[in-house]
Design goal:
Helices cover 20% and strands 42% of the residues. It has two helices and six strands. Strand 5 (65-73) and strand 6 (76-83) form a beta hairpin. It comes from Umbra pygmaea.
Length: 86
């Protein structure tokens, strides 16, 4: 999968960081050390890491991902990462 969304709450910019949804590539999630969680009341799962977004972005860059865009949505920061297919 060539795209990854990374997000965090502004007040939590030191972590945790959301790094994927239930359909994310398990190899990438394992590389990031992410854990899959389902919040009470949600019918979907997300992957989270305890590290701040900067560390997650650094790790993804090491395996070929680049930031395509970044935005703030309310109190959430979101980075869209892309990796060229080989």
């Amino acid at each position: 999968m060539p795209y990854v969304l990374v997000s965090t709450q502004i007040r939590l910019e030191t972590g945790p960081t959301t790094v994927g949804d239930e359909y994310s590539d398990p190899l990438i999630m394992n590389y990031l050390g992410a854990r899959k969680t389902t919040m009470l009341g949600n019918n979907f799962s997300e992957y989270h890491v305890d590290e701040p977004p900067r560390m997650v972005l650094d790790k993804l860059e090491k395996i070929g991902f680049r930031v395509v865009s970044m935005t703030g949505v309310g109190q959430t920061l979101v980075w869209c990462m892309h990796k060229e297919t080989e």
